Amino acid sequence: MSFFHIVVCSGVAPDPLQTLLPVSDHSAPALKNEQMLPHLLDPWAEHSLFEAANLAKNNPQSKVWLVSMAPRAKLSQVMMKVAQKASFELVALDAPSNGFTDSFAAAEKLAETIRSIPSLDFNRLLLFGGWESASRASGTTLQMTGELLNICDQFQGVDELEVTNDGSLRVLERLEGGEHQISLCAGPPAVLGWATGNLPEPPNNPQVGMTNMRQIMPALQKAQAFGYPADALQFTSVALPQQKRDTELVKDKNPQEIAREIVDWMRRQ
Amino acid sequence: MERFLYLLHHENDGSFADRALEGLAFAKALAAQVGGDLHVAVCGEQATKAAHNLAGASQQPILVVEGAEFAFPRFATDAAALTAICETAAPTVVLACSTTRMTRVLAAVACRCKGAIDTHITGVSVNGGQLSVQRWYYRQRIQAEQCRSKRPWFMLFEGGMAPAWQIQTGTVQIQKVECRLPADKIRTIVEGKRTPSGESQTIRPAANLLFVAGAGWTKKQSDGQTHPDQAASLIRTFLQLGGASLGSTKSLVDLKGEGQTVLPFLTHLNQVGQTGSTPRHPKGLATCCHGEEPHVVGWRFINERRAINLDANCGWAQGKADVLYVADAFAVLEEINKLLQE
Ligand SMILES: Cc1cc2nc3c(=O)[nH]c(=O)nc-3n(C[C@H](O)[C@H](O)[C@H](O)COP(=O)(O)OP(=O)(O)OC[C@H]3O[C@@H](n4cnc5c(N)ncnc54)[C@H](O)[C@@H]3O)c2cc1C
Q: Which fold has domain B3-185?
């Protein structure tokens, strides 16, 4: 029977229902009132956490770590919800969460942190995360973290992972046009950057939450502070798109008239 | 002066993806504007043969890495091939278009080359010979222009940056680049593709129209009943007749995960928005979809937008669509299908 050491990397991101306004002071850009915005665990990475917990459940002796780089106060809020969803051990890094930073610096810090997890067996390592964050949204951090850890099997846009009888990993990655590529990997170590996967959000489990919180609180307290280097990226402008349209409201036409208008519009070049 | 390298891989039939050719045209224009050399490289099973369709793309020999092991996207082999090409060409700026194959590997290649990378680039400006790139943050919500001094600078373009480079067959000088990976480094076998069959093939990147179905299709209607079968049939017919690509809201695809029967041909891959895709089509029609921000961020690259919703105060009315029809989408789609059948 295979078992895995699954490390999930995730930051936090503002709740997408919030209004985001960029501000540029003398240094790097940031979000207005960032401290006040409610945050979530980064959505695709959260899916990967659910997949990790499920994989661990189906492969006894497996273990899940969540390595999270985020402002400590935000992370502790987010943990109140996430801790009830899946069993994991938190490794926290106290770092800014806004997206206007260079992913290489994040990857270096993540790789260094993962290397120093005491009981982690590299030969069993599955490095999980979202294939893209909701903040920087570049799809590069996890790839570079894997590279810095010398992992030569990587998969991105993953929707499905199956462990075969001989311990190989069958992975489905997104391709263009709704297709998936099917690959068979000899086993860990491997990087899996998840898309949505197949699992619904698990229900809250207060028991799991309580057990997790006993480890999460001290992990948050000893979170190492990390600052991004200021010179990797220079921003010349940061702005909201000027995309507001003058919406024409059509209220008093019958379905036939509307259909005719839409078909004409569809056919117009 | 910058030294540009444009990276391509060919498809299994030897052709190049449209967006890879769009990227090539853009790279050529950019190199000309900046006054730098443009090197072009092709990776794939029969890269030399494919490269002969790129006559005139570069003044320099086209670099190729080829062999059976490069036939399919696979991280270990692609990363090794692209790194070998970069080491040979020694570029300061590496350009590629964001096919899923390139997207999966280019950040790792940048890391191996001790360079920096930006992805999802939608524009490049040149100011006094200085390059800066435009890209989106927070999933298409905030637009930034940024530059870097670090080289090599890897730039992964979005599609649609320029009209596609026209294939030209002719004599092309080829420079082969050696890339041999020890057998123990190839631990992954590509088994094939899973392609949605028949009517499940609803994602059509080249379609003129994106048709979005929202959760309203499964909600109780004015008669107090739900009509999922009728919804499925209307949408299926529309997709067949209109050739549109099918998008969905998160709420609708999530219903499936909760065990409800919705539209049988819908999956998470159809989801548009914050945690879905950001497709690129000239037109989009949203139906029974509220037009909430986490959904509409996925419409950033849809030029003309119309919506049908019973609610005159839905999100589409707030400057997110050009036209909002306040109407019953069931009735309108039925009429549209009749017209398309004529
Ligand atoms: C972290 C996070 C990420 C998210 N990511 C995404 C994402 O990627 N994509 C996404 O779509 N959402 C996303 N959401 C969810 C988003 O906030 C909305 O909840 C969702 O888009 C709503 O879907 P809907 O418009 O289909 O459903 P509803 O809000 O239920 O709207 C249904 C609409 O149908 C209309 N309607 C009903 N019957 C008819 C009829 N007969 N004719 C015409 N109109 C009718 C109603 O008036 C209503 O406006 C995300 C949310 C979060 C928190």
A: Rossmann fold (3.40.50)
Q: Which residues contact A172 (CB under 8 A, 6 or more apart)?
A: A158, A159, A160, A161, A180, A181, A182, B194
Contact A97, A39 (CB under 8 A): yes
Cβ distance of A248 and B324 shorter than 8 Å:
yes
Residues with CB under 6 A from ligand 1: A 16-17, 40, 43; B 214-216, 219, 221, 249-252, 271-276, 288-290, 292, 294-295, 308-311, 314, 328-330
| CATH domain B209-341 topology | Rossmann fold (3.40.50)
- Give the side-chain half-sphere CA count within 13 A for A146: 35
Superfamily of domain A5-225: HUPs (3.40.50.620)
B94: closest CA among B146, B30, B159? B30
| 8 Å CB contact of A143 and B316 | no
Mean pLDDT of successive 10-residue stretches along chain B, which has 342 residues: 96 94 97 94 97 95 97 98 98 97 98 97 94 95 95 95 93 95 93 85 94 96 94 96 96 80 85 94 98 95 97 96 98 98 92
- So what's the ipTM on this one? 0.96
Inter-chain CB proximity B118 and A154 less than 8 Å? no
Specify the 3-state DSSP secondary structure of B281. Answer: strand
Residues 6+ apart with CB under 8 A from A208: A83, A84, A85, A86, A87
* Residues of chain A positioned with their CB less than 8 A from the CB of B321: 245, 247
The 3-state DSSP class for residue B255 equals: helix
CB atoms within 10 A of CB B142: 22
Q: Which residues on chain A are in Cβ contact (under 8 Å) with B297? A: 16
In chain B, the largest separation of any two C-alpha atoms, in whole Å, equals 70
> Measured between CA atoms, how close is A189 to chain B, in angstroms?
10
Q: Give yes or no for a contact between A198 and A177, defined as CB atoms under 8 angstroms apart.
A: no
